[in-house]
Amino acid sequence: MRQLKIAVVMLLIGGLLTTAAFFLAFYTAEVQRFGTVTLSEEIDSAYPLVGVSNEGLQYERPWFSQKIFYFHVPVAEASFLVLILSAFFGVRFLTTRRKEYDTKSRIAMETALTFVALTMITGVLWTKASWGVWWDWEPRLTTYFIMMLLMVAYFVLRNSIEDEERRAVYAAAFAVIAAIDAPISFFITRLIPSQHPVVFKSGFATSNLLPFILAQVGMLMIGYAIYVMRMSEERMRERLEVAKEALED
Amino acid sequence: MARGAENRQGSRGASRGLSWRQYKAILRKDIVMELRTKEMVTSMGIYALLTMVVYQVALSQAGTAFDPRQIAAGLLWLAFIFTSMLGLNRSLVHEKDQGCLEALLLSPVDRPVIFFAKATGNLIFLGIVEILTVPVFSFLFLQQGSYEGQWWMIPVVLTAGSMGIAGVGTLLATMSVNTKGKDFVLAVLMVPLMYPLLLAAVSATTVAVLGGADAGSQFWQAMALIGVYDAIMLVACFGLYEFVIGA
Amino acid sequence: MGDNHTDSAVEVRDLTRVFGVRKALDKISFDLPSGAFLSIFGPNGAGKTTLVNVLTTLTAPSSGTATVCGLDVVEGAVELRSRIGLISHNPLLYPDLSAVENLEFFADMYGIEEAEQRVRELLCAVELDHRRLDLVRTFSRGMLQRLSIARALLHKPDVLFLDEPYSGLDPHAMDIFDSLISQIREDHTFVMISHDLAKGLELCSHALILAKGRVVLSETRSEIDDAEFAARYRSIVGIGVA
Q1: Which residues in chain C are contacts of A96 at CB distance < 8 A?
Q2: CB < 8 Å & 24+ apart, contacts of B49-56
Q3: Which one of A156, A181, A189 has the shortest CB-CB distance to B199?
Q4: Cβ(C159)–Cβ(C10) under 8 Å?
Q5: CA–CA separation, B178 vs B17, rounded Å?
Q6: Residue A195 backbone phi and psi in degrees, to 5
Q7: How are beta strands C71-72 and C214-220 bridged, if at all?
Q8: How many helices (H) and strands (E) does chain A have?
Q9: SS3 (DSSP) at C192
Q10: Are strands A49-53 and C22-33 parallel, antiparallel or unpaired?
Q11: DSSP per residue over C41-88, as a string?
Q12: To the nearest whole angstrom, how far is the Cα of A169 from the nearest Cα of chain C?
């Protein structure tokens, strides 16, 4: 019960932090620019005029879609951490054979799937805004797409097995192998030559770093809270099962 | 009791020799059964041919300007990954059929021996299908244009790629054989896990088909990635197999 | 039960097998002297199969210990496997191999010396020598069961486990099976799971009734009054079903 209270507090703080990060991202963070845009007449813009050519006036082009970075990357990183957590509980399960670790591993995988889905949505939005298409087989998107498929496969596997213990063993083994596969696919998609550029430029201004860190910490707290709340729900269900069993005897 | 003591000493002394004998026995049994029924190779071979027909349909409107060599590698690996799943499922259904797996587990065999024997068998069957498919595929699709790659690259990448498919596939098929909807579950588990391997294998195979100025370095880069994938995943499957087969 | 502790083939102490809240086995304890024949009865889901799986090293216990032939089922698992055999209602044979190939395959798995001779010997003993080169696929249920006895005896095990060996056998095949078992009765310890009360009692020297993972009755043959035993069994099974 105490853990649940902590989780609720974490959820609130996490929510506040991510919200704060959003505000900072839009109001204080430096807007990154890429390229210039040529307009036929002069406009009132916060972005500097960089030159005049015979086609018109050249303004620096603000990269607004880059703002999604403050949401997208923390979610993506959180999803990966939770996947590792799930695999860790899988290993614990295989060595101890205690059902609670199976439950933990499953709940962690659920949480990871939620986060991967969010990553995919934000990634698709970014792709549309930046490249003008909804989907592109860009390494990062591809990796998360594969990760999402792996997580869906985990639940397909679970649902197709009757025997409780066998289900737990197979699920644990698959969680481990999926967590090993995900980083490999992360690197291989990057190392196999393809036509697309690396998406996010590295190098931060301090004004960008702060909202990023806040969002990251906030997102991890939300992830933890989701996990704990789902866990306590599962524990309640198990206690109910015990009570039912006791009544039967 | 005296007989028991004798047995015990025997089993301890000859344990490595015994593992080798068990490995050969399982592999031989799988090959004999396959030669007798020809179930796996026929079904995989016919399936591979059918994919060729589907490819023809897919490319039918592409026009003469389109050079199928550009996507030949992708088409080939697509055929391999799907046919391999067919064979992998069969190879474990045999064990499951009459409870033979239980008898196998009751014998004093180290579980990894079963993994390696099964994976070797699957590798051999997959290899046979590949050897049959590649010439047919080239005959059907790659006759225009001259061959500019280096032919020896093809068996190299096929071997390395098939090792990954056979190893990971053996673990996954051992799981999927105990599920409802075996084939579907195997596909759902296998394709995303195979993604990095396929990507690297298609890259290496493309180089082998098209050649090019820096073909060598590109090929070996992709091969290195396949090697890393194979090494890591095979170790993981080897480690997990004992848990999975005992469940 | 078990007045002869010095030479027990099976020793089970507080054996428990749980997963989550479900207890398949709940603190089971019993001894079985060497050369005995134990029949285990019980309703479906009583834990009979789990108990045999633990004793045959296929499933690890959650707590408690079990030793077979003086070997712990966890620590001595690999060694133990070469000293036990299983005859199940499933033939556990490859249908696409011949009788000889099947036995030779398992001879390799057990690392048996002079396998060819041993296989010959066993095929004669179960009267299948004339069909030795035929595929197992073509065998009748009774022949399969005989061949599966040969398979279980290949490595000369000390303890034989029988898992509902009569299911699916016609009366004639049952008789043949019985006579084969009586031939090897002297040299082995037997543990049998059975639904068939009459058959189980006919053969056994010890009997055990399991329900909900617990031992509810454990007696030697001489203590058993058949009618009373049957009545108790029925009342227990009745509870198990409800």
Answers
A1: none
A2: B49/B136, B51/B78, B51/B79, B51/B82, B51/B83, B52/B79, B52/B136, B52/B137, B52/B140, B52/B141, B55/B141, B56/B140
A3: A189
A4: yes
A5: 31
A6: -80, -10
A7: unpaired
A8: 6, 3
A9: strand
A10: unpaired
A11: E--TTSSHHHHHHHHTTSS--SEEEEEETTEETTTTHHHHHTTEEEEE
A12: 12
CA torsion, points B71, B72, B75, B80, in degrees to nearest 10? -140
The residues near C44 (Cβ < 8 Å, ≥ 6 apart) are: C240
- Taking the CA atoms of A202, A206, A207 and A212 in sequence, report the sign of the dihedral they define: positive
Q: Pick from C27, C54, C5, C3: which is nearest to C215 by CA?
A: C27
Residue C166: DSSP 8-state: T
Please tell me which of the candidates A150, A178, A192 has its beta carbon nearest to residue B203: A192
Among the partner residues C21, C60, C62, nearest to A245 by beta-carbon distance: C21
Q: Is the pLDDT of residue C56 over 80?
A: yes
Q: Give residue C34's identity as a one-letter amino acid code.
A: S
Q: Which residues of C touch B11 (CB under 8 A)?
A: 78-79, 82, 111
Spans in chain B with pLDDT lower than 50: 1-13
Q: How many secondary structure helices (H) and strands (E) does chain B include?
A: 9, 0
Q: C182 φ, ψ to 5°?
A: -65, -30
Note down the domain range covering B79. 15-58+67-245
Tokens of C196: 């068939």
C218: enclosing H helix or E strand: strand C214-220
Averaged pLDDT, A114-118: 91
With a cut of 50, say whether residue A153 has pLDDT above it.
yes
Q: Find the helix or strand (DSSP H, E) in which A21 lies.
A: helix A2-27
Distance from CA of A177 to the nearest CA of C (A): 23
Q: Is residue B97 part of a domain?
A: yes
Q: Are the CB atoms for A138 and A196 separated by under 8 Å?
A: yes
**Nearest CB to A94 within list B171, B181, B243:** B243
**Residue with structure tokens 């190299």?**
B156
**Inter-chain contact B246–C58, Cβ cutoff 8 Å?**
yes
Q: Is B171 part of a structural domain of the chain?
A: yes
Helix (H) or strand (E) holding B205: helix B182-210
Query: Taking CB atoms and an 8 Å limit, are B203 and A189 in contact across chains?
Result: no
Residue B175 is encoded by which pair of tokens? 């799981």
Contact B81, B186 (CB under 8 A): no
Surface-to-core class of residue A61, CB atoms within 10 Å of its CB (0-12 exposed, 13-18 middle, 19+ buried): middle
Please write the tens of the pLDDT for every residue from B105-143.
999 999 999 999 999 999 999 999 999 999 999 888 887
**Cβ neighbours for C53, distance < 8 A, ≥ 6 positions apart:** C59
Preferred mutation among A165, A244, A249 to probe C, highest tally of C CBs within 10 A: A165
CA distance B18 to B103: 17
User: In chain C, which residues have their Cβ closer than 8 Å to the Cβ of A97?
Assistant: 19, 60, 62
Domain membership flag for residue B191: yes
Task: Confirm if A28 and A249 have CB atoms less than 8 A apart.
Answer: no
Distance (Å) from the alpha carbon of A2 to chain C's nearest alpha carbon = 23
User: How far A38 CA sits from the closest chain B CA (Å)?
Assistant: 38
Q: How many domains does chain B have?
A: 1
Q: In the complex, which subunits touch B with 3 or more CB pairs below 8 angstroms?
A: A, C
With a threshold of 0.80, does the pTM exceed it? yes
Instruction: Give per-residue pLDDT as tens, B40-65.
Output: 889 999 999 999 999 999 988 887 78
Q: Of A41-45, A67-71, C61-65, which gets the smallest average pLDDT?
A: A41-45
Give the whole-angstrom CA distance, residue C34 versus residue C190.
9
